[in-house]
Amino acid sequence: MAFQDVVNTLRQEEEQLAKQLSNVRAALTALGSNLTYVVTGRGRKPGRPAGSATAAGASATGAESGGRKRRKLSAKARKAISDAQKARWAKLKAGKK
Known about the structure:
By secondary structure, this protein is mainly alpha-helical. It is 59% helix and 0% strand.
């Protein structure tokens, strides 16, 4: 009968723990907290909400999302960057031969 006593004691402990967990979840819900994910491993994960601007496909830095406006390069600046990159590629190709 000692084995049956151990099993009964463990079942009582399980019921008590289940009640405590239920109370903790109820308290977190009452506080309106998103910590249930941390406690239970379920529910909403922390992070950006699903309906946010970047999730919908808008750019994060665009004017329509309230962020900074993108800076535009002049044609002269773009050409200078392009020429510099082409020079780097030519130098790399010359080193391989």
